[in-house]
Structures are given as structure tokens and as C-alpha cells.
Amino acid sequence: MRVSTAQFYFQNSQQLTNKQSDVNEQANYITSGKRILTAKDDAVSYGTLAGYKNELLNIEKYQRNITQAQNRTSLQDTSFQNAEGVMQKLKQLFVQANNGSLSDVDLKALAKLGDNSQQELLNIANTKDETGGYIFAGYQTDKKPFALQPDNSIKYFGDNGAREVQIAKNVMVELNQSGEAAFEKVSNETGDFSANYITNTSGLSLTSARISTPSAYDSVGFPPDYTFTFSAPSDLTVTDGNSAVVYPTTTFTPGQTVAFNGIEVQISGNPLPGDQLKLTPEENISIFDTIQSAIDWMNTGTSAPNKEQHQVDYQAILDQLENALNHMTSRQTDAGIRGKLIENQKSNHLDAELVYSKGKSNVEDLDFAKAIANFEQSQVALQAAQQTFVQIKDLSLFNYI
Amino acid sequence: MSVSLYNTGVSGLLAAQQQLATTGHNIANVNTEGFNRQRAEQNSSVGLYSGGNFVGSGTYVQDITRIYNQFTYKEQLHNQSNLGNADTLHKDLDQLNEIMSFSGKAINNSIDKFYQTMNGIADNPSDLGLRSIVLNQAGVLASDFRSLNDNIEQLEKSTNGEILQMADKISQIAEELAKINENILQEKSETINGQPNDLLDKRDRLVSELGELTSVNTIVDDHGVMTVMIGSGATLVAGITPLSVSVNAGDPDPRKIELILKSPNSSVAINGSTLGGAIAAKFEFKDEHLPQLRREVDRMAMAISQTLNQSQSEGLDLNALQGLNLFTDINSPTLQASRVLVPSNNAGNLASSINITDITKVPTDEFEIRFDGTDYIMTNMNDGNVQNLGAPGSGTYTPSNPAYGFEFQELSGAPSPDDSFIIRPTENSASFMDVTLTDSKGIAASTALSVDVSAKNVSDGQINIINVTDPVAARNYVNTTNKGLSVDVYESAAGVFSYRVYDADPLSPPPTPPSVVGAIASGTFLSGNSATIDMPPSPGTAVFQIEITGQPKGQGALAPEKFTIGDAFGSGNGRNATLMALTQEKGVVNGGSETFSQSLAISASDVGGKASTAELVSDTAEALYTQAYNRNQEISGVNLDEEAANLMRFQQAYQASSRIISIANTIFDTLLQASR
To answer: How many whole angstroms separate alpha carbon A329 and alpha carbon A83?
Structure first.
């Protein structure tokens, strides 16, 4: 087979350029440490790689959100812990106050301490976070949520909103508890109704009044308030808001359950004829109202008009304080549980991150041993091509004639 | 007798001279591209009858031919076109791959950073600093899209420029070929025999050059004049007449240039992509790969703009106003009109536009709408699907078979029969993408309404606020016109849920179900379905909808499941920002199956795959060309060693022949001596 001179040079220069570009390519891979620099290097794996990178970015996003959520939750935790402490102190105070040997002045002093507790709790409820927003205000973070009114009551100006962030693909976590849920919605320990004692000569007290059968409770046809009238000799009649009789006159046995209109009521004590009490619907009692009632009770001093009623009131307020204390504890537990959930997700993400990183590096990273071997090979091939060319170019008949 | 010896010697000498000249010519042209080595054919002269015998009288050079095999040459030419095609496409796709990988990464990063800041707002909606950062990031995202679009546009411009250069080159080559043809014709008529080898070589070399640019076919006639045809049979050189190739701006898209073949009295358009060679590769790149990527990028820009604008419109900003568009509105009149390209030869004066209605269905295809005299016929240029849209005059036409997520709108004027319009639904979305919101307070982080679930609910029914078209009006309706809305649902009959919507004014509670006296809205729905209630109900215009899903069984007519809908606006309400942040992982493009990042990755993979295939094709083409080249060179190439040996040979022949002359001289002298 004939080989023309031009062909010879063409072939050699082609070889040289090819080998050089090979070496260059290998060097590129080695210096970057990656097998896939652009989509051209492996179009199919590029898609997988993009997927891994995406997931890792998502996890980063979740971790950032988790950090925020953790900060907020721990602030709530601390706040409720403090609130719990305040309630404990107040309860002890109130227990102390039910001592017959205390004078008016002593009681007034205790009431003042109660006032301080109220103020402390108010401050906790108006906590601000590092952004300057109120944490217990729902969505109205620029307005102070709880404010003291002229009549000594405390009104809530926020709403029931909760901010959420995404901490995993399908997991959202709330960043705040609204003041309503935290401080206003303390369940009434008597149930769904509160008692308003019109005449109480026997010291009877309402133990519980619950809507036991909601499907039977007709608040439109037989609207509250329900008036319990005790008549001679030991009869009880209950009338509704329209003065219609909902529980016909029957003998009342102390300790029995009075059931009407889907409601079950239990009253303790021995009612005397003439006693009257009214049931008003009240599902939740604000913690501040409870504290205010305690303060008012202590401010009444030793000269209450109706000693039995005063004692009944005391018991009711003490029970409600207990309830409020429990509410604070459960709020703190809530925050704690949320914190645990977030912590779980965080460690889940750390695990997932490891898996994805590994997957990503499997696809993307260069097998250095193989790459360097390839590089050496290409280098050797280039050198061989270069040396061959040098050798052969000298072969010409013209050198000898 | 010595006279004839003398002549024989001289003939040998002259022949050897020509041989040496030819060998010298070969050696001198060893590096000339496309040179076919020449050989002098020697023939012995006719013998003279003398003394009863035919005595030979020397030699003469019959012809100096070039060693040329037209079949190997044509094979080399063919492979050269293929190589030109494959190589050009490979280089262009490589460049596109680099651009996409680099810009794709940048856009991915911008998207991530934008959503990162959005999540920050979901946590802390009232922070003005965070809000400005969101606007900044949005600006970066928009500018990344614009620069990717710019890069693609630059590529298109430079490809067009290169096509222009190639067309000029082809025209030049055609001219030169015609001149050579003329020369050959002239020389042929003067010479009796003998080929103008070097002219032929030059002509073949020009044809090779042409072969790189396009695929070439040649026919040589009896006079040696070559007719050159390019592509699939368009004549470029007809004997001594050259035609020229020029470039015309396209219509209606001026960037879509066309090639024109011009002869002295006419011009005809030729399809660049059927020409083969490098020019066909340029056309393929410019008409297929580049627009495909561009439309994908445009569609993504549109999807992001629309998704975020939609989210904005459903929420309230810090001033309790409905969120304005964050990015350029995808249905702005300018954008809408720019999606319809009108050829200049349309006789009618119809002005039209394209309105995007459902971003998840928008394809990256190009369409043509033609008025055939009766109806608008819409053809999908990529898959051939044809739909009849109906007669003109109805104003808006929605393709439904399949639905493409856009509608064709007549704005003014009327079409004439055979008018056509090019429809590109995603055109210009990336180049126009910009942040139109300037006030950081304008980010609509807050939702307008919230749903409060009663603590007494026992079943797993749910209420959602959906389709908020006017959050300010919605808030007004719920908060001012009413004092909140109360919704109660319960199972009134087996598998049937009854719901009622009432004003939640505590002073006028709703009656006991099933009475619907004074209800704002009421109705029933079956278990397994859901209820969607327009608020305000007709005859008012709905500004939002209440959706009831699940199994809200309740506990009978006196204790239904209760929900309250109330005003949720507040500076600490980041609910809408949370929803906006969730769109990062929501599938929007391509029927809702791809998130933004996935879409980007798919586009980049596509280009990468094409580039990698083009590289393989180019490698193969190069190998094939090398083989064909080698085969051709085997026959026609100059080998210096061979020529060196020939030099020796012909030198000896020359010496030997000159010896004959001197011997003839000596013989003559001897004869003269003898006759004295």
C-alpha cells in the first residue's frame, strides 16, 4: 500500500492533536475532582446528579427553618416555665389567704402580692422576641396583645393566628402559640357552664355542669341561662332563658345528677328551699380573670356579706387556679413536644443528608485511581506519538542522494 | 542511419527532460493541497521501414496525466461534507452545553436563594430588611434569566453571521469554478491532446473546499466543463455560469434567515438544512436546537413569573392591599401581542394576541394558524396535530383537542383567505422578565382569611379557603359586611352532608339545623365529594371560595361540625409567604410534573445528551474521512522517496540519451573521416 508524504504528515499531526486533547481532558477531570463537569460528560447521570443536588439544597432549607423554629419554641418553653412559676406562687398565696386568723390588713397585703403576680404574668404574656414582635399576639405582632383595662380586667387584642414553616417535605411546624390559646382558653373546671349564685343560704356549690350529649343539646329551642330553683320541701325546678320549664319539679337528692336538654349537672351540698343559682355558658375562662377573681376575693377582707357564699367562691377560684396552673404546664409540654418533633426532623435530615451526599459523590466524584491511570496512559501515548514522529521524519531518500 | 540514431537520442533526451520536469513538478508540489501527482506517459515512436526491417525511432511523451481516481475522490468529497456537518454541529452544541451548564447553575442558585429569603419572611413577615432582600434576590433571578436569554440570542446572531459568511464563500467558490471552467474550455480547444492538469487540480481543490461547506455533486461533460450541484440537486455552477448564494431575512421572524440561490435572471429559495455539510449543521443548530432551548427557558421564566404573581395576588401586603405582581405580568398586552408573528405577505389586517390561561399546559411547540377562507386552522408545527378553531369573528378561540393552556384572541381587523400567523406561546418571556414590585412592603406575606376549627369538632372534615381572587374584598366581606362567617356541617342523611354558612354575629345566632332561614349559603354534598361555595354567593361576584372536604359527620343536627372564618390580616401573618415558599417544590411546568429546578436540569441534560451524541458522530465522521483521504492519497499523493528514486532514474535516462547523441556524433565523424 502506498503512503503519500502528505498522508504521512496528516496522520501524524492528527494523532498528535488527538492525544494532546485527550491529555487535556484528563487533566481537567483530575484538577476538578469531578467526573461530570457539564451535562455532556454523562447526560443520563447529570439528571440524577441534579436530583441529588436539589435534595441537598432542600435539606439545607429545612435545617435553616428548623433553627428558626427551635429558637422560637425554646423562647415559648421558657416563657411558660416562668408563667408556671408565677401560678405556683399565686396558688400558695391563695391557700395562705384562707386562714380565718388573718386580718383585713393581712388580706390586703396578700391581695397586693396577688396584684404583683398578675403584673408578672402580664409581662410574660407580652414577651417580645429578637425581631421586636410580640410572641403571643397571633398575627398582630406589632400590637401589644394584653392590656390592662380601667376596670382592672385584661383584654386580648391579638388574634388566633399561627405562623408555619416547612421543616420536611410534608411537615409544617407552627412557630408560635397565640395569646388566645395560651392564656385565654383555660378550660372551665366545672365544664361548660359557670354558676351565678343568686341566693345561697346552704353553701351549695356547683361541681360540674357539662353538655354530655351534644346531639341532644338544643340551645335555640331551650336557650340558657338555666335557673335552678330549690323549693320546699326538697324540690328542684329548672327553667331556661325563656322561663320555660326544662326540668319539671322533682325531689332533689343531694349528690344526684340533674339531667336535662343534653346537660348533666352535679351540685354538692344540701340545698335549702329558697336557694337559687343560674347556669351561664362559659367554656373557657381567661387566666387573668381567674387571677383577678382571686385578688378581688382577698380584697373583700374579713367582712364578706355571705360567709357560705364566700367559702363556695373560694373553692371555685382555687379549683380554677389549679386548672390554670395545669394549663400553663400543658402549654409548656406542648412547646416541649414541638421541640422534640423539630429535633427528630433535624436528625432525620442529618441522616438523609449523609445518604444523599454519598449518592451524589458516587455519581459525580472522580475515581482518582482510574483517572490518574488514564492520564498516565494518555501522556505516554502522546509521548510515543511525538517520539515516533521525530524518528520517522528523518527518513527520506533525499538524505542519501 | 545515424541521422535516425541522432533523432532517437534527441527524442530520448526530450522525453527524459519532460519526465524530469514532471518529477520536479511533483516534488515541488509535495505540500500543495489537493495536488494529484502527475506522470508522463512515454510511448515508443513508430518504427521506420528500412532495410527490410522496422527500426524503432525513439520515444515521445504521449501525455502527462494526473493520477486521479474519480471514485476515491468522490468518496473523500462525500466524507468531507459529512465531517463538515458533524464537526460544526459538535462545536456548536458544545458551546451551548457550556452555556447551559454555567447559566443553569446560576439560575438554580438564584432560585434557591430567592426561596431561602421567602422562608425567612414566612418566619418574620414584618421585617422590612428581609423584605428588601427578597426583592433583591428576585431581581437577581430575573437578571439571570435575561442573561441566559441574551447568551442564546448572541449565539443565534453569530450563527446567522457564520451562515452569511459561508454563503459568501460558496458564491466566491462558484465564481472561481466558473472561471476555471472557462479556462479549461479555452485550453482544451487549443490543445490537441493533453490535460490542463493543474487547472483540473485547482478545480478539484475548490470543489473540496465547497464540500466542507455543503454536499457537492459534480458532472464533467465531454469538453471537460464541470457542472457543480449542491445539496439535493441545486445547480451552483452551470458550465461557465456561476450562481450565487445569498441570505435573506426571514418573514415573519427576521432571525430565521433563508438562503437564496441567484442566477442572472432569477432567484429561488433553497432549504439550508438539506444542503448538507457545515451549512446544514448551522441551520439545524439554529432552527432546531437553539429555539428548542430558548422556548424551554422562556417557558420556565413564564412559569416562575406566573406562579409567584398568582401567589402575590392571593395575599395582602403590609398595607392590607392586594399583592401586586412581583414579576412582569405574563399576559401584559405587549407580551401577548409579541407571541403572534405576522408574515408581511398577509393580505388581511388582523391584529391578534395570545393569552395564557393555564401555565401547566403550555408546550414548547410552535404553531401556525391559517385562515383558509372559512375557518382558522391551527397546526402544531412540531407534532403535526391540526385543529379547526372556528370562523373569525368570535373574538377568543381556545384549542381544546388537546388543550394547550392558551387562547387566540382577535384584537382588531379581519383576515384574508390564506393569511397565516406563527404562534409562539412562550416568546419573549425571559427577555422581558423583570421585577416590577419596588416597595418591599408590597410583598404579600399575609393571608386575608383564616379558618378557626371549633374545639368541639369530632370528625375529620376540613374547610379550606381557595381561589382568592380579591383578598381585600374577601376580607371586607367577612369582616365588615359580616362579623365573620360561621359554617356548620353535619351528616343529615346517610352519606349526605348538609352545610350552612351564616354571619357569625353573636347577637343573631343561626337557627337550629336543618333550618336555613337567613343563611348566606347552604347546600348538601355526597360523601366522597367536596363542596365549593362561592363567597359572596350569586348574584354577587365571588371573591373567594369555601371548600369543604373530608367526612364532617358531626353529632347530629344540634351539634354539627362548626368552623369560623375570620379576618386574618396582621403584620405577623406570614401564611401567604409560607404558601409562596412551598411553590419551590410544587410541580408547575409540563402538566404539573416538574418543579423549576427539575425543569432546568431536564433542559441541561437534553443539551448535554445532544452534545455528547454530536461528539460521537463527529469522531466517527473524522475516522471515516481519514480512511477515505488515505485511500485517495494512496493513489494520488506524492511520495518524496518515490520521486527521489524517479529523479535518479530519469537523470540516468537523460545521461544515457545524451550519450546516444554523442555516439551518433562520433559515428558521423567516423563516416566523414572514411569519406575523405
So the answer is: 9
